[in-house]
């Protein structure tokens, strides 16, 4: 009978041995079901080559700064097709308990796009400055001349229910700044941006700040890296959640020419190897 398996117990074999034989396919089936249910596997891994993550938190007298060696032990990595996602595996409390990074993740694709999402809590009695920056590599280089579907959503919450909550841009900067090949390409929520809400209930309606670009032309270039830097001041006892994205694309004609050039290079390379 197809689809069935049988085990035979020899005279000298115990029933316990047969039970162990039966447990193996059951265990394999359970693991297969678990894998299908959870999707791509995540594991702690070194930060991919070319990807940079910089986190800085300061309260005016103390500063906590991340470094890649420590972060590689705190992050999970998931690869799904051409997309790579790095994520914080557990909340991290820093500045001697004065600040907590509840969540952070970034997804990037050589398409190319990158995201920078996180939630932070100011546990202290003074305002804190947050700086969270990601840079993703684009390899091979990709011709682009347009920014699309790029945005930020900044959600403020009055966690301690005291005196409301405030988030604001640092002097002379923007809360959101996107970079292409290391140069500033797009900004949102520029100085003197500031947003406040009076209570947890008020923050539900007035604690959200958002900005977006559906499509915006830029000078044509070959993209080798893209990144997003988020920076802001946050009032004491409050939290802020950030969702941000930056994406650049070529015009259809440019993409076609690039594809043709790439195909030609591959053909010539193969001929040279013969």
The succession of helices and strands, N to C, reads: HEEEHEEEEEEEEEEEHEEH
Q: Can you give the helix content as a percent range?
A: 10-25%
End-to-end Cα distance, whole Å, is 52 Å
- Summarize the biggest pleated sheet: 16 strands, antiparallel
Features:
274 residues, 4 helices, 16 strands, globular, disordered N terminus
Quick synopsis:
This protein has helices at 15-38, 68-71, 200-206, 252-273; strands at residues 43-44, 52-58, 63-65, 75-80, 83-88, 92-94, 99-109, 113-115, 117-122, 128-157, 165-168, 174-180, 183-190, 194-197, 208-234, 239-249. The protein is of the alpha+beta class.
Structure description:
With 274 residues, the protein is an alpha+beta fold. The chain has one domain. 21% of the residues lie in helices and 50% in strands. The chain contains four helices and 16 strands. It has a 16-stranded antiparallel β-sheet that branches. The radius of gyration is 25 Å and the shape is globular. The N terminus is likely disordered.
């Amino acid at each position: 009978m197809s689809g069935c398996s049988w085990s035979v117990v020899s005279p000298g074999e115990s029933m316990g041995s047969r039970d162990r034989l039966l447990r193996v396919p059951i265990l394999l089936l359970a693991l297969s079901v678990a894998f299908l249910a959870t999707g791509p596997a995540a594991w702690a891994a070194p930060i991919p080559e070319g990807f940079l993550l910089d986190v800085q938190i300061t309260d005016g007298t103390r500063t906590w700064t991340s470094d890649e060696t420590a972060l590689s032990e705190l992050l999970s990595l998931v690869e799904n097709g051409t997309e790579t996602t790095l994520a914080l595996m557990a909340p991290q409390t820093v500045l001697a308990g004065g600040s907590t990074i509840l969540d952070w993740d970034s997804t990037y694709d050589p398409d190319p796009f990158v995201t920078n999402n996180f939630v932070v809590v100011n546990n202290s009695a003074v305002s804190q400055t947050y700086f969270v920056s990601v840079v993703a590599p684009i390899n091979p280089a990709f011709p682009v001349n347009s920014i699309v579907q790029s945005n930020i959503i900044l959600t403020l919450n009055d966690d301690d229910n005291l005196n409301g909550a405030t988030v604001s841009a640092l002097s002379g900067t923007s809360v959101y700044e996107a970079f292409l090949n290391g140069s500033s390409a797009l900004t949102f929520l520029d100085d003197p941006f500031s947003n406040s809400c009076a209570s947890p209930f008020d923050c539900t309606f007035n604690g959200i700040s958002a900005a977006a670009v559906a499509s915006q032309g830029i000078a044509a270039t070959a993209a080798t890296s893209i990144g997003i830097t988020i920076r802001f001041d946050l009032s004491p006892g409050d939290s802020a959640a950030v969702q941000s994205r930056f994406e650049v694309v070529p015009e259809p004609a440019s993409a076609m020419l690039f594809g043709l050039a790439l195909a030609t290079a591959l053909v010539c390379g193969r001929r040279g190897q013969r």
